[in-house]
Design a protein that fits this description.
There is one protein chain. By secondary structure, the protein is mainly beta. It has three domains: 335 residues, Jelly Rolls; 123 residues, Trefoil (Trefoil (Acidic Fibroblast Growth Factor, subunit A)); 123 residues, Trefoil (Acidic Fibroblast Growth Factor, subunit A). It is built from five helices and 43 strands. Strands 1, 8, 10, 15, 16, 17 and 19 form a seven-stranded antiparallel sheet that branches. α2 packs parallel to α5 and α3 runs antiparallel to α5. The radius of gyration is 26 Å and the shape is elongated.
Amino acid sequence: MRLTPRATPAPPGATAPRATPDRTAASRTPALLAAALRRAARVIGPPVAVLALVLGSLLALPAASQAAGSLPCDIYAAAGTPCVAAHSTVRALLSGYVGPLYQVTRASDGATADIGLLAQGGYADAGHQDTFCGGTTCRISKVYDQTSRHNDLLPGPAGGAGGADRGADASEIAVRAGGHKVYGIWVSPGVGYRYTGAASGVAVGGQPEGVYMVASGTHVGSDCCFDYGNAESTPYDTGNGHMDAVSIATTCYFSPCTGSGPWVEADLENGMFQGDNGSNTANLGNSSPYVTAVLKNDGRTTYALKGGNSQGGGLSTWWSGGLPTRGGYRPMQQEGGIILGTGGDNSNRNMGTFFEGAMVAGYPSDAAENAVQANVVAAGYSGRTDVPNGPQGTVTGPGGRCVDVAADDTGTNGAAVQLWDCQTWAEDQHWAHHANGSLGTLGRCLDVNGNGTANGTQVELWDCNGAGGQKFVQRSDGSLFNPQSGRCLDSPNGATANGTRLQIWDCNGSAAQRFTVNGGAPVAGPGGRCVDVAADDTGTNGAAVQLWDCQSWAVDQHWFHSAGGTLGTLGRCLDINGNGTANGTQVELWDCDGAGGQVWNQRPDGSLFNPQSGRCLDSPSGATANGTRLQIWDCNGSAAQQFALI
């Protein structure tokens, strides 16, 4: 589907604290399943007669479990409409599945890893991804088909309406399902996946089929096209009826529409249909954080659209009736390709977040679709879906604008780094401050052009390579200092207009050089371990502050050092228990209240000094083991008191 480019509206929903994924899976992750098991036999459900029994058992399931025979593709198979493609980065969609869900490729060395399951028919092993991608970034380079047909998805080739697609940043959006941390596929402009050619078993030439997906109803846009389903076998628009994909977008292609969306729509090529011949004011839209979007098409005369809240309730039927009478749709002329995140001609300008979906052969029954919705609800999705929610955060600069990469989230080498209005959904405005001092987004780093050191040298995005021109240290006056050049990140002449290209300049403490790294940065301590909050990113008052292995994905290891001297993470501050001053008093996390026990000044010897107590942050007896509880002690310049702010 191709639409005329237009400005993308802000997604609905006010800014709120981000979800904070846990890290414990990284330390207790089971070994990867043997490659020989990746495509093991799938459990095929019993005949249609047991479907009601399956649905009944689903409704009684706790969110953290997935009963054998009860997953979406089991349900469809029991109803006589088996899955021919099943894709998810979150969980198994067949109870017998033991293979990988997706593959990630590491930016630092190009190595790949398959991300599998914690258990057969279970949830994704996000801990394995975290460990493999720690200290660098990864992209999702393949999404595996869980059926025996091997209809795997790869970043799509260039097509009639868009250049070659890139894989999504693998850690951009972390949520929870079944009580586990899992990752979704954050689609920004230029991200998309495809099975090129006719996929095995997928409908062609007017055959009946169905498709569902779970996607975000808050990270959406109006451009083309955030789709999942049947598309052309090559990335070109070959005419009406050559696509049969479900979409969720704020696109009102056929007016009038009710409200402002987002709506569950059918991309049948050359039209985003809300029902009937296109316009359907009965389609009220679905704007919940998680949306179950459903499309089915008999290929000849009839199609249906449904939407529901993936966290609770049933499906609303927005349309069940005749296919469009416009030319080309009766019969349909599907070609059997598969797309995720783009249009059929590779229109890849929209945004969205995908968690799971499947395509089936035949026209699914309402009972089967209701059972699938019940299973999706039982999967227990939770967490915000409209903002990147890892340890990355915005970097705000002069005029309250954000540090941004030109060219809308594409992030090529040499892309200009500039100021722009802050946009919560903009991937290229969310920067991670790494332990080596680099600031990264879109899999690349903030870089001084040519590794230069002269006043006025512009900054850009470039492959992370550890060069001196990629290190930026947050200082207490708000500046971002580049040690190699001895200069600071700067907005020329203090300009604040959208598109202002940033540079380095002599550090001068002016407003032109005040940049706040809202995502914070690691604090490296004794033994090369990081200052960490116990209880895995929950951050309650009184939570112990300790040493732990540095984990780039851990939100509670990223600390924001304010100009007032506080160190904060998870919305609270590093605090001395009881505002104490005695040697050995332990530190903890507590509501930021301006108390003297929450002020920490970095000193030239590497210590963090608390002026109220006259003592320094300290690891007892110089211990470096994971879980070592930190305290204050007389400042002594020892290795036990070396804590480096980045």
